[in-house]
Design a protein that fits this description.
With 136 residues, the chain is mainly alpha-helical. It has one domain. The chain has 7 helices and no strands.
């Protein structure tokens, strides 16, 4: 069992992060860092667009959130289920299934053809900056 102090600290850190993402505008804020993987490789990682997606979601823009990173909501819901039912995460194939989905998403969102290019992060109405375009 997790000590109450550690659990409370984690909850406070999560609340602080969510509050910061709510008030800061991704792409324009100094303390929300850009994706280092994108800057180094010019490829989108599975998490590219998560900050903008969460920002849009916190402002009630579900479709804009999905355009930024369609994997954010299923990922958060999966994490909640696995934290709520930890024995489920130990079942055979769960970890490999999640890994396959994340890696497949990372590969598909970098393909420069329809419909896969729609998986690349797009800016939301709340934010005007999208990730730097890939150099082909």
């Amino acid at each position: 069992m997790i000590p109450i102090g550690i659990a409370a600290g984690v909850v406070l850190l999560l609340l602080a992060a969510v509050t910061a993402i709510y008030y800061a505008e991704p792409g324009k804020s100094r303390f929300l860092p850009p994706c280092l993987f994108l800057e180094a490789t010019h490829l989108y990682c599975p998490g590219c667009g998560n900050t903008r997606a969460l920002h849009a979601l916190l402002h009630g823009e579900l479709l804009a959130s999905l355009r930024c990173n369609i994997l954010l909501l299923p990922g958060v819901l999966t994490a909640i289920v696995l934290l709520w039912k930890p024995k489920l995460s130990m079942r055979k194939g769960v970890g490999l299934g999640i890994l396959a989905i994340v890696l497949g998403f990372a590969i598909l969102r970098n393909l420069p053809m329809e419909p896969f290019c729609k998986l690349a992060p797009h800016s939301s109405p709340q934010t005007t900056d999208a990730p730097a375009p890939r150099q082909n």
